[in-house]
Specification:
Blueprint lengths: L5 E14 L2 E14 L3 E6 L5 H6 L9 E6 L9 H10 E4 L11 H11 L4 H14 L15 H13 L5 E5 L7 H18 L2 E6 L2 H7 L2 E6 L2 E7 H6 L4 H8 L8 H11 L6
Parallel strand pairs: 3-7, 3-8, 5-6, 6-7
Antiparallel strand pairs: 1-2, 1-4, 8-9
Amino acid sequence: MELMPEAVIFDHVSKTFETRSGPFTALDDITFTVPKGTVSGVVGTSGAGKSTLIRMVNGLETPTSGSVTVFDRDPATLSNADLRELRRDVGMVFQSSNLLETKTVAENVATPLRLLKASKSDIARRTADVLEMVGLADRADHKPRQLSGGQRQRVGIARALITDPTVLLCDEPTSALDPITTNQILDLLSNINKELGVTILIITHQIDVIARLADDVAVLSEGRLVESGSVASVFADPQHELTRKFVDTVIPPALDPAARESLARALVKNYEV
């Protein structure tokens, strides 16, 4: 089988913050890769270092040691101009949509292109395209307060897509949404991955989100990588206690083996064991 090139490489990444009580290690020697064109997930409890890790991909954080490369570019070593170019290639979807409440949906979505000083015609065309893509073409003139939680998150996704990125970072994109809306957002992200070929890196504490959307998963605990692999293999045979606890939240251990496998097949993308 032909190996896919790597979109993102985390190579022995560590991050230490200085605090009043002394050094705090948020990440400790993290190594894994995100293959091009796939959906990769990072799962862990609160404080595991997930957000710190994902912010290194677009240069919002830099490693204390080790390196992060994004299509052969290391954000920590780039000039300001090159870092701006990288951020055009790396879109980001936040936990809360972070919309400007006084601006319309279209104005919110267009913000990255306005900052890049794109032409008015390009802004108008691209804004219309991405709003159509996320199913909000009829909401372009609405204000954020007129939208549901799911619609607001769709606006955030459209804004992240407007620069035509090759990588999309998703920081807990469904944690504030109800289950039905969560499924709708996951369907949208899956379509973006399949139809546009965008590589997606999603961090979450919801293992069911990983099961539904991701091809591969990395499990973090207190800043350490405790397990990684294909989602199917991790669900079929979790090796670390934390991973087993995560899996048990969606596939109850009290079920007999046949029932567990049947449920896993229903829940996990590309489940083949």
